Amino acid sequence: MATVLYITAHPLDPQESFSLAVGKEFMEAYRKANPNDEVVHLDLYKENIPQFDADVLRGWGKLQSGSTFGQLSDAEKSKVARLEAIVDQFVAADKYVYVSPMWNFSIPPLMKAYTDATSIPGKTFKYTQNGPVGLLHGKKALHIQASGGVYSEGPLADIEMGYSYLKKILQFYGIQSMEAILAEGTASKERAPAIKEKAIAHAKEVAKGF
């Protein structure tokens, strides 16, 4: 049995969001193909994801300097403990499904905050004499992304920083198996329904072997 983190970053619902609509169909197909796997849905708009603020940085600094957890302030304790819980949950999972729209050529801020929370030395990577090394080998990931334009190829490819960013981060963690389902060109009202259906069909196929 595998554990899958289904990580969504959109404030609307599948009836209003292209990315969530595709993600919903993917997960339904995945559950049918893998009925014994555990799927944990992380709606990042409902999760408590601490920012790397003064409390977090000071709390980490105190711990690195030899202070005990009990010596931290209440705010430091709360945020540091929550960040540790987030990364531990991430490390314990076997597969990751990220679902997001492309906003301003990249991922939504809450998904960036989540990747910050999972980019912790000693958890997802470590520093060595030869540079950083990923620690999450043998896991796999998928990114479902919807965008108004086409960014996977053509003149806008150089400014695509959504899927490409997640791919780089996860490779940094040691996750080499990374797939993408892209619903591109949804800004066209005439073409959007067909684009959505094509992405859903693709998602159902990918789900069978993910």
Task: Report the average pLDDT across residues.
Answer: 97
What value does the Rg take, in angstroms?
Answer: 18 Å
What spatial order of strands do you see in the largest sheet?
Answer: 2-1-3-6-7
Question: Which stretches are low in confidence, meaning pLDDT under 50 for 5 or more residues running?
Answer: none
Number of strands: 7
By CATH reckoning, the class would read Alpha Beta
Tally of contiguous helical segments: 6
Tally of domains: 1
Distance between the termini: 13 Å
What kind of sheet is the major sheet?
A: 5 strands, parallel
The name of the CATH topology is Rossmann fold
> What is the general shape?
globular
Q: Note the run of SSEs as H and E.
A: EHEHHEHEEEHEH
Helix content, binned percent: 40-55%
Structural class: alpha/beta
InterPro entries: Flavodoxin_fold, Flavoprotein-like_sf, FMN-dep_NADH:Q_OxRdtase_AzoR1, NADH:quinone_OxRdtase_FMN_depd
Catalytic activity: N,N-dimethyl-1,4-phenylenediamine + anthranilate + 2 NAD(+) = 2-(4-dimethylaminophenyl)diazenylbenzoate + 2 NADH + 2 H(+); 2 a quinone + NADH + H(+) = 2 a 1,4-benzosemiquinone + NAD(+)
EC number: 1.6.5.-, 1.7.1.17
Domain Flavodoxin-like fold: 3-205
